[in-house]
Amino acid sequence: MPETEPWTLEHKVTWFVQVRTLNSRPDSEGARWRETEATGLVLAVCNCGLNTGWIPKADMTAQPALADVQQHAALIAQAETDRSQRCRS
């Protein structure tokens, strides 16, 4: 078996925006409407296990865990650049 480098986790950050819905009562014709709005909370998770929990969107850059998310984003961008360069060769 050839020598290989150790296994590493690829960082893939996924952001979720929390939303809530409100179902209206039926109108005179029986039609119902649904309103959807953002609650102002966001959550970031990464394949490596990072999970910020629900945090205010306005505070997301002030959270210490998000520094890691920003580093993850840089790693992802670099990996995509490397991949696209390999595809061109």
In short:
The chain is of the alpha+beta class and 89 residues long.
Protein architecture, described:
This protein has one helix and three strands. It has one domain (13-88). The protein is elongated. The chain has a three-stranded antiparallel beta sheet with strand order 1-2-3. With 89 residues, the chain is α+β, with helices and mostly antiparallel strands. The model has no long low-confidence stretch (mean pLDDT 78).
Mean pLDDT: 78
The largest sheet has its strands arranged as 1-2-3
Structural class: alpha+beta
Distance between the termini: 28 Å
Return the string of H and E elements: EEEH
Low-confidence parts = none
Itemize the secondary structure elements and their pairings:
Blueprint: E1 13-23, E2 34-46, E3 55-56, H1 64-88
Antiparallel strand pairs: 1-2, 2-3
Main features:
89 residues; alpha+beta; 3-stranded antiparallel β-sheet; 3 strands; elongated
